[in-house]
Design a protein that fits this description.
Layout (H helix, E strand, L loop, with lengths): L32 E6 L14 H20 L2 E12 L8 E11 L3 E11 L7 E14 L12 H18 L1
Antiparallel strand pairs: 1-3, 2-5, 3-4, 4-5
Length: 171
């Protein structure tokens, strides 16, 4: 009888980069919707031991697409990352909360602001803003051409809210 010998190595502790100074906890946004929660894993780290920025960007793109997809009922594609700011590092084990809010609704496009908050594994219940971004999505048809967004109750509500906010800032 042949036997294979396997060696298993277990990592009992993940080497973490030194903690940055404790930052004050911030309030979560009341004007945006929680659209995604995720915990980054060791496979997502960069050479510095923090979570790779490209991984964070991919999660922001997914989170930002949730609200436009609700109204389009068709394919929505990311056409622009208008702004992307990494404010603090993200670490393995952080609980990330992604909040999104619609900032503009055009004929074929929707601009979305996404804010990302980390609940540090070692300091749960306190939140630190780690990323903020604005992305633009466009509705497309089967041939990949832009198509009009449907005129739904949600689309009208977003447009009215944006107009009211713009009017309030003028005063």
């Amino acid at each position: 009888m042949l036997r294979d010998n396997y060696t298993f190595t277990f990592v009992s502790q993940i080497s973490m980069p030194p903690r940055s100074p404790d930052l004050p906890s911030v309030a979560l946004p009341a004007d945006k919707e929680l659209v995604l929660k995720v915990v980054p894993m060791p496979a997502d780290v960069n050479a510095n031991g923090d979570i790779f920025g490209g991984w964070v960007m991919a999660q922001v793109d997914l989170a930002g697409s949730v609200l436009p997809q609700r109204i389009s009922h068709t394919r929505m594609v990311t056409v622009a990352v208008n702004e992307f700011i990494f404010k603090q590092p993200v670490r393995v084990g952080d609980i990330l909360s992604f909040y999104a809010g619609v900032q503009h609704v055009g004929r074929t496009s929707v601009a979305v602001d996404v804010e990302v908050f980390a609940e540090r594994f070692s300091d749960q219940g306190k939140y630190v803003k780690v990323t903020e971004a604005r992305l633009t999505y466009v509705a497309i048809d089967a041939t990949g051409k832009p198509q009009s967004l449907p005129d739904t109750e949600q689309t009208r509500a977003w447009r009215e809210k944006i107009q009211a906010q713009a009017a309030a800032t003028k005063n």
